[in-house]
Amino acid sequence: MTDGDRERAITGNRQASWAFADAFVAEDDALIRARRRAHESGLRPVSPGTGATLRLLAAASDAKAVVEIGTGTGVSGIHLLLGMRPDGVLTTVDSEPDRQQLAREAYRDAGFAANRARFIPGRALEVLPRLADGGYDLVFCDGDRLEYLDYLDESLRLLRPGGLVCFEGTFAQGRTLDAAHQDAEAVRLRELMRAVRDSRAFAPVLLPTDDGLLCAVRRGE
Fold first, then answer.
1. 209: which of 14, 136, 164, 176 is 20 to 30 A away, CA to CA?
2. 3-class secondary structure, 88
3. Overall pTM surpassing 0.70 (yes/no)
């Protein structure tokens, strides 16, 4: 076997492992329907593996109050609600009310009571400053990638000590990993990763789920 053959075999095994891990936690009919509506709307929902990770993080942190930036059609929200405490409330922010209506239907389809989610329409950077300081256990960011650094600043204020912030899509389909890509989004995401990694306020990890999930725990005071 040549070096090239070995490299291709390793790459193939790695891709197979990622695909297996992504599909490890099966999604139920409500999630499948929400995912289908996302694709029909031209949106890219979180992958099953990313959703399962969000569910695990919400459960591990015993999350009662979660902020989601980017409602979509409810795929990530369902995963978060499944991991949260039974009395937990998801506050989800999106600039498109039509998408939030689809998410509302998806949550109902998944069996969640109406009072488990609070829908706030509007631009994230206009809504987040109105939310309570230190009032949240987890902030999930899946909005405008160019605004992620601003979301990081808001998250530091919103999270209780020990709370989590997660950023979806930080690999930008591989562009942030290749210095040759200098588009605004890739550059901004590299700045975000450096800021989180170097911050004394957070303990970070970069997870290779689907398109990259950057997570960090807010350190105590």
1. 136
2. coil
3. yes
